[in-house]
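[job 4471] stage=fold_predict status=RUNNING
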Amino acid sequence: MLLKRSMPKIRWQYWVKPWQQIDWLLFGLPVALTIFGGIMIRSTELTQGLTDWWWHWLMGGIGLIVSLFIARIRYENLIQLHWVTYAITNVSLIAVMIAGTSAKGAQRWISIAGIPVQPSEFAKIGLIITLAALLHKRTASSIDNVFRALAITAVPWALVFLQPDLATSLVFGAIVLAMLYWANANPSWLILLISPLVAAILMSIPWPIPIVLFHEVYLAPLGLAWSGGMAILGSLSLPTRHFWLSGISALCFNLLGGELGIFAWNHVLKEYQKNRLTVFVNPEHDPLGAGYHLIQSRIAIGAGEFWGLGLFKGPMTQLNFVPEQHTDFIFSAVGEEFGFIGCLVVLIVFCFICLRLLHIAQTAKDNFGSLLAIGVLAMIVFQMVVNIGMTVGLAPVAGIPLPWLSYGRSAMLSNFIAIGIVESVANFRQRPKY
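[job 4471] inference complete, writing structure tokens
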């Protein structure tokens, strides 16, 4: 009798023990977003007879199974495999450039068994694993380790940028900056890293009178003032014996970076990429072209008002006035059919996911696990902010999907893999002792 009574307990422990320490809320919230995202995708395609909502749920289910499997495997094993992961990441991106398929002016997909796969989505996970393995041994407290991390990031970043996929390359930048900050990098160094981008923007504003250096090279006063401020910051923060040498280096870095940014704008970026980056300031300038997406998205969100028009009842959504609504502009469907309250609930769910990721990063048993969680947090936060910002007109239009809500098979699977890795960090934390 005693043996028979103990059997159910033993079986229960056998099945539950591998997942005793994981954060079930962090699993449940993405699953809820995935279910809700399938409903919204169904709403956007109701009059077209498409079945993307079914694929959305199918990939969500597969991603959930994969993440549960990853959660019960010790994440420390990734340290030994980080160079293999890095090599696979770069090889897959090179394969896209050689044998990938093109769509909408970009070559980002490769066909595997007849299914299009976007390696750049999985490259974000590979970069997080590689940087976490490097920075947990040598923190970013020295400038040498910072440049080492940047050099490692530069290879996959360049391969993604050349596809061209400007949006995903920006996600790479957000990931590396967040992980460097968490790895104890001096915040002033991070400001200096992004300062050439700001300098390029300011130098493109020739107000009031540009200072002409050469035939096509000029320094706008605003850009020159910003570069001078960065020179002061560099002289105070860079680790050199002569502060004036650090200041001159920072000044030249900004001036050169600014001019290179202007050159890239004029000669590297495609015309549609430049339109996406500028049209959000004044979408009415091209209402039937580059500004059409943004104008229609804002109209749809505004039409929802406070409570929304109801599921399957939004005219902008049902009549397909918003292009790419099932992918990049899925948030506009939420705003029209569920209103301000629906948008607020979605934002609250994302906030809870971010808080759980931050909690796991703070309670991880080692730096490697903590850096993994911060890398995933940066990836989710950046994608969420940019996607929602572009649908309401606060950010440039970029091809960044909203995690778990937008349709995208590779994106869905990579997001669940990222959650599974963080859940492994939570699952193998130090158990509290009383």
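[job 4471] summary: Residues 1-10 have pLDDT under 50 and may be disordered.
[job 4471] exit 0
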